[in-house]
Amino acid sequence: MDCREEKTVAFVGLGSNLADPVMQIEQARSAINALDKVEEVAFSSLYRSPPMGPSNQPDYTNAVIKVVTGLPALILLRALQKIENVQGRLRTGERWGPRTLDLDLLLFGEQCIRVPDLVVPHPGLAERAFVIYPLVEIDDTAQVPGLGSIAQLALDCPLSGLVKMT
Question: Does domain 8-164 bear CATH number 3.40.30.10?
Answer without folding.
Answer: no
